[in-house]
Design brief:
Elements: H1 2-9, H2 11-23, H3 26-46, H4 55-67, E1 71-76, E2 80-86, E3 93-99, E4 118-121, E5 124-127, H5 134-150, E6 158-164, H6 178-183, E7 194-205, E8 209-211, E9 214-217, E10 219-228, E11 232-233, H7 243-261, E12 269-277, E13 284-285, E14 288-297, H8 300-320, E15 324-328, E16 338-340, H9 342-356, E17 361-363, H10 374-377, E18 382-390, H11 414-431
Parallel strand pairs: 3-6, 3-7, 7-18, 8-17
Antiparallel strand pairs: 1-2, 2-6, 4-5, 8-18, 9-16, 10-14, 10-15, 11-13, 12-14
Helix pairs in contact: 2-9, 2-11, 3-5, 3-11, 5-11, 7-8, 9-11
């Protein structure tokens, strides 16, 4: 019903977009560039690089963008690449973004282009794999860049192609990703009016696109709790201030923030403890316990509530046990909510339906995963969508998850991504 209402509300936009599209056969252009897109994807997949270490990847991308005659800037946020296509005519500035980094995962696929690369992660040599599809994102954006360059005469305004490093998080002690790109002015000179991004999805059928308006992916707030007690022999617990028991009570109480304090019918939220360390012998009650965890929220009200509730519970429980506790929130980084601008989403819904087909344009529920595309959306209207990469002959249950050694997406899914990025640009320019 929501989709139908949006379609009716923006019927006028549909006609504008469709009229513009008839002038340019994006399907034909996407078919033409598809072999190159597949070639680029295979190259990136075979030679992945970790966050803030995408040096050869960036060189490959920059060389191609320069071959298109684009104005290219390298070294943005350390290894990022930004290119500008200027139509020479007044109009909006549209940004298109792709992420570049791989993950410390050993590939277990039997692909001819599987990764055999290694890199350094936290001081150790590790295998590296594009286990989240960033290889496809770069290839799709390069394909869109080629198409838009070819039809430059039909454009108005400018297109900014953003190839972003470190979406998966910068190495320890470093900063990176979209937050740094924004700080370095990637959305300025020229000032960007709207930004579009997409993510391949291994559990969604090839040919389908999923979207959501408003809070789409969660904010991320890591935290650390250090509980200071009093060490004693395990046989004489009354002589201790036990940080282990305190931690246990604290963990259980923290879970009630979501289950008993938030209105879950409005939005989901998560507070999870992912690591706990304390002590080294069975018969010694330790002096200290350290826990680290993550908060995921889909709206600011929930985030604000957890920011108030977590310190309150940590302090009260520690005091009730005679212990002391230190809470660090956020710990070392945070991601804002990936928030799809409602008006931009409505305006681009006809574009998605025309490009993928109405039956293949799916209204999706928000997810508690996160994306640093959100830093761009904090500054300007943005739209982030998911593009299907699951082969049609594989069930959703049998499709491998992202960030796993078996991760796989079908090359055939990329053509839709190329078309969406191109049509988002064309239709936004037509509407502004």
């Amino acid at each position: 019903m929501y989709q139908k209402l949006l379609s009716l509300a923006f019927a006028g936009l549909t006609s504008v977009s469709a009229a513009y599209a008839t002038q340019i056969n994006v399907d034909e252009l996407a078919n033409k560039v598809e072999p190159d897109v597949i070639k680029w994807r295979h190259h990136f997949h075979e030679f992945p690089e970790l966050s803030n270490r995408e040096f050869k990847t960036a060189e490959y991308v920059a060389d191609y963008l320069k071959s298109l005659g684009l104005e290219v800037q390298t070294g943005v946020a350390k290894t990022g690449v930004v290119a500008i296509l200027d139509s020479g005519k007044p109009g909006p500035v549209v940004a298109l973004r792709a992420d570049m980094d791989g993950l410390p995962v050993k590939e277990q696929n039997d692909l001819s282009y599987r990764s055999k690369q290694v890199g350094e992660y936290n001081g150790k040599e590790v295998p590296v794999m594009h286990a989240c599809g960033h290889d496809t994102h770069m290839a799709m954006l390069m394909g869109a860049a080629k198409i838009l360059t070819e039809i430059k005469g039909d454009l108005k305004g400018k297109v900014k192609f953003i190839f972003q490093p470190a979406e998966e998080g910068a190495p320890a002690g470093e900063k990176g990703g979209a937050e740094v790109m924004v700080a370095e002015g990637v959305l300025k000179n020229p000032d960007v009016d709207a930004i579009f991004g997409l993510h391949i999805n291994a559990n969604t059928d090839v040919g389908k696109v999923r979207y959501n308006a408003g809070g789409t992916m969660a904010a991320v707030d890591p935290f650390k709790i250090v509980i200071h007690g009093k060490q004693a022999h395990g046989a004489y617990p009354w002589k201790s201030v036990d940080p282990v028991v305190t931690a246990a009570q604290m963990i259980m109480s923290i879970q009630t923030i979501v289950s008993r304090e938030l209105k879950l019918i409005d939005d989901a939220a998560v507070v999870s403890i992912g690591s706990i360390h304390g002590g080294n012998r069975s018969n010694i009650i330790p002096n200290e316990v350290e826990m680290v965890g993550t908060i995921r929220t889909l709206n600011e009200a929930a985030r604000d509530h957890i920011y108030e509730s977590l310190p309150r519970k940590v302090k009260a429980i520690a005091e009730s046990m005679g212990a002391e506790a230190e809470l660090t929130l956020p710990l070392d980084y945070y991601y804002p909510i990936t928030y799809n601008d409602p008006e931009l989403t409505k305006a681009m819904l006809p574009t998605m339906q025309r490009t993928a087909g109405v039956e293949n344009t799916l209204l999706s529920k928000p997810v508690t995963g996160a994306e640093d595309f959100s830093f761009f959306q904090e500054q300007i209207p943005g739209l982030y969508v998911w593009v299907g990469g699951k082969p049609l002959d594989v069930s959703e249950e049998d499709s491998p998850a992202h960030h796993t050694p078996e991760f796989y997406v079908d090359d055939e899914g990329m053509k839709l991504g190329v078309k969406l990025l191109t049509n988002f640009t064309l239709d936004y320019m037509a509407q502004h």
